[in-house]
Structure formats: structure tokens, C-alpha cells
UniProtKB/TrEMBL annotation:
PROSITE patterns: TONB_DEPENDENT_REC_3 (PS52016). It is found in: Cell outer membrane. It comes from Dawidia soli. Its main location: membrane. It is a multi-pass membrane protein. This is SusC/RagA family TonB-linked outer membrane protein. One of its GO terms (cellular component) is cell outer membrane. Belongs to the TonB-dependent receptor family. The keyword Membrane applies.
Length: 1018
């Protein structure tokens, strides 16, 4: 953008620097609204003498506050007849902490920010880079209004099993939506729906991309913004744009950071002596004999008999307090007059918390390693013809113990401290008839599992400027090919355990063997294979006629997804969209998409979708021209009909498929051999009328900028009605022995309000900002084909989507008389201390007629608040994120079951049961009476187990220091930055026995991460 100098014309020039002394590239210098110069990579700019003294220079850059200077008055410049300025003046711009570019990315293109009338929210790379994260999803929580993330696990849950099921009528894969995502630790919701992820114009896996390579992340929430997706348009879009080569000069950037992870909110199991005491109490409540004596209690407490009366803290013995995580990324870019290039590579290593053994030559800890490499080359074949080629490859290697991460976490959760010793006196693994596998043996001596994912992607984009034929017209083409192959290597083994019983004399003892030893297996399984091909053609038009500005697009695309060698899925779209504005004051837009997918029956494969929008920029009106403090006041609204029919409509379920089964009877075949009678059966019944789900979506909003654009406010209200939802008929009866297929009969309503506000300013070198967003969403089941309900309170229709349904707990039974006089579950014996349920219909029996909504029926509200500043090279940012009006069902069958683990003698018990009911604690009890049997009364789904899920989390803190440019430049370094950051540092929750986002300890815990690193740019 460096302005051209004219020989023999008087010129003057300068250099643009930020407050750190770094040169500013890409700034625009304007006079009376016209661009007269631009700054190069060293911050230099040149002005021709046609710009006279006294003119006001306006310096603009999206990352900096606008600055004005009067030429010749506020600058000291010697004018000389030469092609180079004889003297340069220095202009210092103060940076905006938050990036606010004039152009924003939209689906399959870019648009002027001030002309947008849809609901779009965006964050940029400087906010993403503050988060030490293996995936970009970690950095999104609390930053974008309307986007709600719930982190269910602290690490990726590896795929190690075969992901397809074969039947006689053809393979019916479980993953029929596209390539299986390797993400399992996050739930991502955009206004209640799972958004479609589009990366650089192609639908891809969010978790395959290096966070350091991202330029911006946007969420497209209204009907118009996502309409080109056709049958995927109802869900909204998570739009990711990666960094592209935009300079001809060589640049190099390296970022490395190393961190330490530690688990949040681990369970608190009872020590062995407390466990033994409370187990005796539970047995007595069940009219059974106690199994432990006072001597046992003392031995457990004092550790005098570690073999016979062990006290093993399994969490401490199997899990480490911390684990390392490291990420490194390198980017090189440059080019010449014709071509520009960018090459990026990254490496990430995240280790889990499992203890390991130095005797193993292989990895038994949970670990994931990710290697990525990407390249982009942009070639100007002619002034009008651009070719853009991108290549991407990823290798993801995961490991875990041979016993399996999930199985181990469950066993740690379920095993009491008093169950058995880790090792016997002779070094063998401890165990007994009830525990025939040893946790430590399964952790460090069960072999290993490796899962491997290999991804490759090639993308070619063509852009031809047709201005010579029609001004403002251009043609674009994109084609993309990607493959993914996931495999698992299982080398598993198992050890026997021994129960040691010392002799009465105290000399020696006997060992009794339990369980069976298994030699190490060597199994290799193809988990999933996918091949995706995508092609896109478009004609784009962008032209201004006086006061009229028109933007249009004709668009067509096709995607072919083949998963596990099954029949391909081939969605395609034909679309048109147009935008118009008059003087930047009045805006109108419209779009239409004709969408096709082959998973429906012939004659039902095409659908039509549309969207329209209007906007009004009031600050362009005469009645607001004199309001100096108001920079923008735009009213906008969008309405449209969208669809959702590719990812949820099954695998050709309009066809009837069959499976092979065998009769129960057998007959003799040869000597000692039996066989069954084979037959075919329908599985399941086909629905030839299945079609896509639909939605009518309305969004109205207002955008406000004030105080010289230092303050920005946005508000959106949306009303989305989803209908023809696939549901089971509640009144269906399987007359012929088969389940009925899903039908397009459901209807749900989602409505809500979203607010966001940002204020940023500076006092000299001190730049600061404060930004917040808040979202509230209410839902309603408008139609659900329920079975006939006798009472209105039994109905789910009219309640919130996903609301908890069960009994209302009414305290505990206080006495035998209370038990005798109160309503109870039929055929269930209860005692004082058991949960008492409310008899809603007054018939003195607790049954299905007493069930109603018990939770998750309030508008979910979530928010994020970020504050930060930079000053003389230092920068600090802090992010708080949270939610309220949020319920969670906390009973997971172990944590709150108390001695009632299926398949074992007695399971582990946790601190929750210390609040159990006894006659002495009846007034303060927070937990039912203890029992060792399966207490069907207390395990009913009820409001007793519903807790507030409200929480606020200190999600991220980042502190950095950038060395002054005058120092780093001496060593050829344009920027040298040191930083430390933390993730998930503190959580305040209404219920803190479990993490508010992880409701089951069978999942890997969420991690706190503290890391430090360096960024070097050349």
C-alpha cells in the first residue's frame, strides 16, 4: 500500500509507530475522505506535494485509534524536489486492544462491517492467543454472545472401536454425517443448536486446526447469514478464517509455550475407617450383621495392618497432581510481485494424569500428540486472475492404558479405599473374590492402546475479475478434497490377583489366586475412513451507482461424503443472494436456496429456503446529524425459512433394511456341534415419507457506536420456531414386534435476548478495554406426540426443551408412623430416612401420575466479561465466564449411590453421604439413610438429585511483555514477546461437589492450565 513517489515532485514522508515503537503496516492516510498514502512493512509512508500544508491528515488502521494531524502545523517537514523525503516526521498511533476491521468475513465471502444487518459476532486472533489450548474451542467460552460451550472432559476421549455396523441390506454406519469428529470433550451450542463449522469456506472439523493459525472466529446466527448452507442452514455457522499470505516481504513467527495441568474439583472419597463405620451403619439399616469391629476401625485408621485392612487412596495412587502440556508453532510467509506464500507447522503434546511405570518401554499414560502442517500459495497469474492453493495435513496420535481410560476412571470411582492392598508382601497384586482385577495392575501393566488419525486436505481456489466485461463482476471457483483415516492398535493383557491371609502364628501366610491371566493381544482395528469432495462455483457482483450500492452472488456447490466405504451422501445447493443500500442509510437483502440431498426418497430430495432483511442507519438522517457523540445507530431485522436435514435424518432410512438372526432352537450337526436356524427380519421399519426439519427464524437487533467509536453496543432478539422435527410417536404400538421409525411431527420454540458491549480508550500510552456479553434463551416444546396424560402437570408439551421429568421430593420419611400414613411407591418397602415423594393427585399412591417437570425449565442465561490494558509493552487481560438459571442432575449411580455399586460387594462412598439421615440428624440431613441394597425408592428420578448448576469461572488470565522495538530491532527481530497465562483458574459454583460442567467423574476432569511462552517475529 506504499504510495508511489513521482520523480521531480515535492514529496514529504513519515513513519508510523505504535506506542511500543513498532512500525505499523497497512495503515491508510486520508485527506478529505480520499486515500493519499499507505504505510509499508516498516511503517514508512510518502505524501506527494499535491497535499498542501494546512490539510488535515487522517491516519486509520483497524487495530489503532484514528489520529488526525494538520500538515505543516503539527508536523515539521522540509519540502524538497526529490523522490525521497528529505526529512520524516514520526506519528504515533495508540492501539485498540480489540480488533475492529472495516471488513468482516461472512459465509463464502467478505462484507463491509457497517452494511451488515444480520446477527454476526466475531473475535480475532489477539483474543484467541491468550488461551493455552489444544483446540480453539477452549478459547471461545464466554467470548461470543449466543455461543454456549460446556466442557464435559479435560482431554480428548480417543476413538478405539469400530464405528460401523453391518447388516445384510448393506452397511449401516453409526457415523453417517460426515467424517467422525475427534472431539468429545465439548458440547457447543449456538442458540440451542449445534452449529455447522466452516473453515476457509469449507465444512471441516473444528478440532483439526491449529489455534495459532486462526485469524478470526465468527458466529452467524440469523437466517440470511447461513442460508447458502440450504438443508444445514437452521443450525447457524461457526465460521473460522485462517491467516493468509498478504505480504511480499519475508516474515517469520515462532510461538512456543509450556504449561502445567492440574485437575479441577476431584472427588473426595472417604478414608477406610470412615467407610467401614458407615458401611456397618448401612448394614444395620438393612437388618444385616455388621462386618467391622472397633479393632478394624483402629487398624484402618492407624495403618497397622496394610495388607488385611488397607487404606488405599486410589485417586492419589493412580493419578498425578500435575501433567505437562506444550505447544509450538512456526509460520513463514513472503513472496514476490506475482506470488505470495505462507507455510505453518505446529506441534502439541498433552499428557494425562495417570501414573506410569519406568519398567515399561511403552506409554501407558493418557497422551495426545498433534502434528499439523499447512501451506498456502496465492499466485496472480494476470492482473485479473488469481489462483489460491492450500494444503493441510494432520497427524493425531493418542495413547492410553490397555485397560482403557474410561474403564479405569470408572474403577477408580467405584473402588473403596479398604478393598485390597496394591501389593501383597511377596510383591504380587492384591485382590480377592470380589475384586479380581487390581487397579494398579490395570493402570501400569495392562498393555496399551494407541489411536491414530491421519488427515489430509487440498484446496484450490480460482478468482477471475471480470471488470473488463462488466464492472464489479467476478467469478470464483473452489474445489476441495480431504481424507481421514482413524485406526486403533490394542495390545492388552491382564494379570491375576492374590488374597494374602497371614497365618495365626504370624509367620508367613497363604495366597489365594483370583482372576485369570491373559497374554498380550495384538489387535489392529480400522475405526473410521472418510473421503470428502467439495466443489463450489459463484458469480459475485459489487458495484456502486451514485448513491446506490449493490452486492450480489449466484452460487452453487456440491459435497460428496463417503464414510467407511458406504453409499455416499451428496448434498448440493443452488442459491442467490443480493444486498442493497442507499447512501449507507437504508439496507435491504434477500437470499434464496434450492437444496438437494440424496438420503431421502426420490421425489422428496429437494427443498427451498429463503431469507429477507431490512436495515436503517439512523445517524445518516438529518435529525441526528448534529448528535456529535453518536457515531452509529442501526436498526436491523432478518426473517427466513431454513432447514436441517443432512445430519439428523438417518442413513437412507426411507429404505427397508434387514438383518440376520437365529432362532432359539438348535439342532445337532455332526459330532457335538449345534447350529441354529437363520432368518431375516426388518430392522428397523422404514419411513418412506421422512423429510428434512425446518425452521422459521426471526432476528431483530440494534447496533450502536458512540463517543468517537470508543463505545459499541449490540442487542439482538430472536424467535426461532423449529418444526417437522424427527420424533417417535408416543401413542405408537409395535403391533408386529418392531419399533416404529421416527417421523416429522415435532415442534420446538427457541427465543432469547443477546447483549454485548465494549468500551475501549486510552490515556496516553495506557490503553484499556472492557467488554461483556450476556445471553438468555427460553425454550418450549410446542408439540410432542405424548401418550394421553390424565393430569396437565404430567405433560411435557408446553415445558422447556430437555427439562428434567420425575418426582418432586418432599424431604425424608421421619418415622414409622410417617411411613404408614404417607403415599409410597407401589410394591416398594421404605423406612424412615428414605426420600418422600409428593402425591400430586392425592390418591395415596406414588406412581407415574405423580411425575412432573422437576428442573431445567428456566431460561438459560450465560455471560462473559473481559477486561484488559496495555502500557509501555505490558499487556494484561482477564476473562470471567459463567451461567445461571442452570440445573444439573447430579446422581450418576456412584458418587451419590453409597455402597450400591452393581457387580461389586460394596462400592466406594464419598463425602456427600456424611450428611446422611439418622434419627439424630433428621432435621439437618442432606442425604437419605444409608443402605447396602439397591434402594429403588431413593434412586428414582426426582428433584432430590437436582442441583443448581449456576457458576462463575475465572476462565483466563494473560500477562505479556513486548520488548521495545528499538531494542529487538538491533537483533533483526521485529517483535519479541514473553507471556504467561492461565486457564480455569477459579470457579465459584452453587453446588461444588462436582464441577458445574462435568457432572460425572467417569469423565476425565477439567484441567487448570498455567503456562508461559515466547513469541518471536522476524
Amino acid at each position: 500500500m506504499l504510495a508511489q513517489s513521482v520523480v521531480q515532485e515535492s514529496v514529504r514522508g513519515g513513519i508510523l509507530l505504535d506506542s511500543y515503537g513498532n512500525p505499523i503496516e497497512g495503515a491508510t492516510i486520508r485527506v478529505q475522505g480520499d486515500s493519499v498514502a499507505g504505510s509499508d512493512s516498516e511503517g514508512n509512508f510518502v505524501l506527494l506535494s499535491t497535499v498542501p500544508n494546512g490539510e488535515v491528515l487522517v491516519f486509520e488502521h483497524p487495530d489503532f485509534y484514528v489520529k488526525t494531524l494538520t500538515l505543516g502545523t503539527e508536523t515539521s517537514v522540509t519540502i524538497k524536489n526529490d523522490s525521497q523525503p528529505s526529512e520524516r516526521f514520526t506519528v504515533t498511533l495508540f492501539s485498540r486492544y480489540l480488533h475492529t476491521p472495516e471488513e468482516v468475513y461472512v459465509l463464502y465471502g467478505k462484507a463491509d462491517r457497517r452494511s451488515q444487518i444480520g446477527s454476526v459476532s466475531t473475535i480475532h486472533t489477539e483474543q484467541l492467543n491468550t488461551t493455552p489450548a489444544p483446540t480453539v474451542a477452549y478459547a471461545l467460552a464466554g467470548r461470543l454472545p449466543g455461543l454456549y460451550l460446556s466442557q464435559g472432559s479435560g482431554i480428548r476421549m480417543p476413538a478405539t472401536g469400530n464405528n460401523y455396523v453391518a447388516d445384510l441390506g448393506g452397511n449401516v454406519p453409526r457415523y453417517f454425517l460426515g467424517a467422525p469428529s475427534d472431539n468429545t470433550e465439548f458440547g457447543i451450542s449456538l442458540r440451542g443448536q449445534a452449529p455447522v463449522v466452516v473453515i476457509d469456506g469449507v465444512q471441516r472439523d473444528l478440532y483439526s486446526i491449529d489455534p495459532d493459525n486462526i485469524e478470526s472466529v465468527s458466529v452467524l446466527k440469523d437466517a440470511y447469514s447461513s442460508l447458502l448452507l440450504g438443508m444445514r442452514s437452521s443450525r447457524g455457522v461457526l465460521l473460522i478464517t485462517t491467516k493468509r499470505p498478504d505480504t511480499k516481504e519475508f516474515k517469520l513467527s515462532f510461538t512456543g509455550q509450556v504449561g502445567v495441568q492440574s485437575a479441577l474439583n476431584m472427588p473426595k472419597p472417604l478414608p477406610a475407617y470412615q467407610y467401614a463405620y458407615l458401611l456397618n451403619e448401612a448394614l444395620q439399616n438393612d437388618n444385616k450383621a455388621a462386618v467391622y469391629t472397633n479393632a478394624d476401625f483402629e487398624a484402618f485408621k492407624n495403618g497397622t495392618d496394610p495388607t488385611g485392612r488397607p487404606n488405599v487412596d486410589w485417586y492419589d495412587q493412580t493419578l498425578k497432581s500435575s501433567a505437562p502440556m506444550s505447544t509450538y508453532s512456526l509460520n513463514i510467509s513472503g513472496g514476490g510481485r506475482v506470488a505470495r506464500y505462507s507455510i505453518s507447522g505446529s506441534y502439541m503434546n498433552q499428557q494425562g494424569l495417570f501414573h506410569t511405570s519406568g519398567q515399561n518401554s511403552y506409554q501407558t499414560n493418557i497422551e495426545q500428540k498433534r502434528y499439523t502442517i499447512s501451506s498456502n500459495v496465492a499466485v496472480d497469474v494476470t492482473d485479473d486472475f488469481l489462483v489460491d492453493v492450500s494444503l493441510f495435513a494432520r497427524v493425531l496420535d493418542g495413547s492410553q492404558p490397555g485397560a482403557g481410560m474410561g474403564a479405569l476412571l470408572s474403577q477408580i470411582l467405584e473402588t473403596p479405599n479398604s478393598a485390597y492392598p496394591i501389593y501383597n508382601p511377596n510383591g504380587s497384586y492384591g485382590g480377592d473374590v470380589s475384586y479380581q482385577t487390581n487397579l494398579m495392575a490395570r493402570l501400569i501393566n495392562s498393555g496399551y492402546i494407541q489411536d491414530n488419525s491421519r488427515d489430509a486436505l487440498a484446496n484450490i481456489g480460482l478468482h477471475y475479475d471480470l471488470n473488463d466485461f462488466v464492472q464489479g463482476l467476478s467469478a470464483n471457483a473452489v474445489t476441495n478434497i480431504s481424507t481421514q483415516n482413524i485406526t486403533a492398535l490394542t495390545r492388552r493383557k491382564q494379570n491375576t490377583v492374590f488374597q494374602y491371609v497371614p497365618s495365626e502364628s504370624g509367620e508367613g501366610g497363604t495366597y489365594t489366586q483370583y482372576g485369570s491371566a491373559l497374554a498380550q493381544t495384538n489387535d489392529f482395528a480400522p475405526v473410521s475412513t472418510s473421503r470428502l469432495w467439495y466443489a463450489q462455483l459463484s458469480l459475485d457482483y459489487d458495484r456502486t451507482f451514485g448513491k446506490h450500492h449493490v452486492v450480489g452472488k449466484l452460487f452453487g456447490d456440491r459435497r460428496v461424503a463417503t464414510i467407511n466405504f458406504d453409499l455416499p451422501q451428496t448434498p448440493s445447493n443452488l442459491a442467490a443472494r443480493v444486498q442493497y443500500d442507499y447512501e449507507g442509510k437504508y439496507f435491504a437483502e434477500g437470499a434464496f436456496t434450492r437444496s438437494h440431498v440424496n438420503v431421502y426418497a426420490p421425489g422428496r430430495q429437494w427443498g427451498s429456503f429463503y431469507a429477507v432483511g431490512l436495515g436503517w442507519e439512523l445517524t445518516r438522517e438529518a435529525f441526528l446529524q448534529d448528535v456529535a457523540w453518536l457515531d452509529q445507530l442501526k436498526l436491523r431485522g432478518v426473517y427466513g425459512k431454513t432447514g436441517n436435514g443432512i445430519d439428523n435424518s438417518g442413513y437412507y432410512i426411507f429404505r427397508q433394511t434387514y438383518s440376520r438372526t437365529f432362532t432359539d432352537g438348535t439342532y445337532q450337526q455332526g459330532f457335538g456341534r449345534t447350529n441354529g436356524t437363520g432368518m431375516l427380519e426388518n430392522t428397523p421399519l422404514a419411513n418412506p415419507n421422512i423429510t428434512w426439519e425446518k425452521a422459521h427464524k426471526l432476528d431483530v437487533g440494534v447496533d450502536i457506536s458512540a463517543l468517537d467509536n470508543h463505545l459499541q453496543l449490540t442487542a439482538d432478539y430472536y424467535y426461532d420456531r423449529y418444526y417437522d422435527l424427527l420424533q417417535d410417536r408416543g401413542k405408537s404400538i409395535a403391533l408386529i414386534g418392531f419399533a416404529y421409525p421416527k417421523e416429522n411431527i415435532g415442534e420446538n420454540l427457541y427465543k432469547g435476548l443477546e447483549l454485548s458491549a465494549t468500551y475501549q480508550n486510552n490515556f496516553g500510552d495506557f490503553n484499556y478495554f472492557l467488554t461483556g456479553n450476556w445471553s438468555s434463551m427460553a425454550t418450549e416444546v410446542v408439540f410432542l406426540d405424548e401418550q394421553k396424560r390424565v393430569y396437565d402437570y404430567n405433560r411435557v408439551t408446553g415445558e422447556s426443551v430437555g427439562a428434567y421429568y420425575g418426582y418432586i421430593a418432599d424431604g425424608f420419611f421421619s418415622s414409622a408412623a410417617d411411613v404408614a400414613s404417607s403415599a409410597k411407591l407401589e410394591n416398594i418397602v421404605v423406612q424412615p430416612g428414605d426420600i418422600k415423594y409428593r402425591d400430586l393427585n392425592g390418591d395415596n399412591v406414588i406412581n407415574q401420575y405423580d411425575q412432573t417437570i422437576i428442573g431445567k425449565n428456566k431460561p438459560l442465561s450465560y455471560y462473559g466479561l473481559t477486561a484488559g490494558f496495555n502500557f509501555k509493552g505490558f499487556d494484561v487481560s482477564v476473562l470471567f465466564q459463567g451461567a445461571y438459571n442452570r440445573d444439573q442432575y447430579i446422581r450418576d449411580g456412584v458418587m451419590d449411590a453409597g455402597f450400591q455399586v452393581t457387580g461389586q460387594s460394596y462400592g466406594q462412598a464419598y463425602e456427600q453421604i456424611l450428611g446422611r439421615w439418622t434419627p439424630e440428624t433428621a432435621e439437618t440431613a442432606t442425604y437419605p439413610r444409608l443402605s447396602t441394597s439397591n434402594n429403588f425408592n431413593n434412586t428414582q428420578t426426582s428433584s432430590f438429585w437436582v442441583r443448581s448448576g449456576d457458576y462463575m469461572r475465572l476462565k483466563n488470565v494473560s500477562i505479556g511483555y513486548t520488548l521495545p522495538f528499538r531494542i529487538s530491532n538491533r537483533y533483526g527481530i521485529s517483535q519479541l514477546k514473553f507471556f504467561v497465562n492461565g486457564q480455569n483458574l477459579f470457579t465459584a459454583a452453587s453446588y461444588d461437589a462436582v464441577d458445574p460442567e462435568v457432572t460425572s467423574f467417569r469423565n476425565f476432569p477439567i484441567m487448570r492450565v498455567i503456562s508461559g511462552g515466547i513469541n518471536i517475529k522476524l
